[in-house]
Each structure stands twice: as C-alpha cells, then as structure tokens.
Write a structure and sequence with these properties.
Elements: E1 14-18, E2 24-29, H1 30-33, E3 41-49, E4 55-60, E5 71-72, E6 75-77, H2 85-97, E7 103-114, E8 120-131, E9 142-148, H3 150-159, H4 166-178, H5 180-184
Parallel strand pairs: 3-8
Antiparallel strand pairs: 1-2, 3-6, 4-5, 4-9, 7-8
Length: 190
C-alpha cells in the first residue's frame, strides 16, 4: 500500500443541507443524510479527461455503503460543513486521485436515487469538467480506474448500464444533451 492510501471520510462528517433552490438550511451527518430516502444535501461530481479526450472512470470501493463496486465518473463527494465547493473539490481530488487540477463548473441539478435498504442519495449536485493525464488512486476509496473514449462509454451505457452509478448516468446524459459546447472542449463527441 502506498502512502497516499488513507481513509478520507467518515459517516460522522457534517454535510450541508439545502432546499430545492440550493439555499443552505443546516447540517447533518453523512450517515443520516443517506438513511432512508436521504435528506437533500450538497454534492459534486468531477469528470476528468486526458489529453486524448478520454474520460477517467473509477470503480468505487466495495466497502462503500452506497453503490460499492459500481463504475462512476472520475470523482464525486460532498463539501463538508464550512467548505466551499472549490475547497471541497480540490480536497477530494487530492484525497482520491492525488492530483490538483483546475475545474470548470458546468451546471447543477438535484436527484434522488435509492440503493435498497442501504440508503439513498438525495443531492444537489454541482458538475465539473477538468483535464488530467495521470492519477494515483487511493486504493481504500477506489477499486480500479481506467480511461475510456466517448464511443466506448456509449457502448457501456448500452450493454452494462446496471454497473454504473445513477448520478453518473444522469450527468453524462445531461452533458451530452444540454452542455455539448462545454463537453466538446474536453472530448470528441460522436
């Protein structure tokens, strides 16, 4: 295990609760935010592309409470109580992938997704794009990583969608449908 492998979050950390207009309404533990149908809280998703325009995917650790073992976008997490999105995204990219990159904010949306009796996501999610050629995954957070082209990803959506996280599917579809100009700065779209 290399020195970059360490546990980087806990069920007790306080997340930022918001209303449907993304106004801060309070704080709650990560565990409580994900119980039952979930409580609406802030989150973010990062899509990192290499210089060939391929998207970095991560397979979530099997130890994750929600969607463990599923493939997802490059990095996703939550700002903690008192953290801005800029601080939170930089922290998590360093914690999970050992990189520091500039990000472009593209859009935000809310969604809710159940994961059986384990709990649910109920998030106001900010979506970012960035560029990065090399990462070193934290093996306590991520089981595997790989870069894929937009064409390869389209094939996975068609044949293996049940192995992908729900937020990743929603975000990728929205990026292709509604934010093609931003996305085309990072990858070639078919």
């Amino acid at each position: 295990m290399n020195s970059s492998n360490r546990i980087v979050s806990s069920e007790s950390e306080e997340l930022i609760l918001v209303d449907a207009q993304d106004n801060e309404t309070g704080f709650m533990s990560k565990a409580d935010c994900h119980d039952g149908d979930g409580v609406l809280h802030r989150a973010f998703s990062v899509f990192l592309f290499n210089s060939q325009g391929e998207l970095l995917l991560q397979q979530r650790s099997d130890d994750k409470r929600l969607w463990g073992g599923y493939w997802s976008n490059s990095c996703c997490s939550h700002p903690r109580r008192g953290e801005s999105m800029e601080v939170a995204t930089r922290r998590r990219l360093q914690d999970e992938l050992n990189v520091s990159v500039d990000l472009e904010f593209v859009y935000k949306f809310s969604y809710q997704a159940d994961f059986g009796t384990a709990g649910a996501e109920n998030e106001m999610c900010y979506v970012y794009l960035g560029r990065c050629d090399a990462v070193m995954a934290n093996e306590l957070e991520i089981s595997a990583i790989r870069f894929v082209s937009a064409r390869e990803l389209a094939s996975e959506f068609a044949t293996a969608a049940d192995t992908l996280t729900p937020w990743f599917k929603l975000e990728w579809q929205a990026l292709q449908r509604d934010y093609r100009d931003a996305l085309s700065r990072y990858c070639a779209l078919s």
